[in-house]
Design brief:
Length: about 80
């Protein structure tokens, strides 16, 4: 899941994934690619790990949505 300045909206999306996907497929993994968000997206994700576990990766530079999607696929 690519993320750039998603802030609170991303946490809501992760709750939906947890409730509707992970509850049925417990072996699934959520990967969030923080594409250099300056709004604290990564900090919010890390603070919410207990309720909404996700692997958070951060490429070295903001590469845009396509690059973030490729980074997530590579990580998977």
């Amino acid at each position: 899941m690519p993320a750039y300045n998603e802030g609170e909206g991303l946490l809501l999306a992760l709750e939906e994934v947890r409730d509707h996907v992970l509850s049925h497929v417990p072996t699934a993994e959520v990967i969030v690619v923080d594409d250099g968000s300056p709004d604290g997206t990564r900090d919010r994700l890390e603070a919410a790990q207990a309720e909404n576990p996700a692997r958070v990766i951060q490429p070295p530079a903001n590469g845009g949505q396509g690059a973030a999607q490729r980074a997530g696929l590579d990580a998977a």
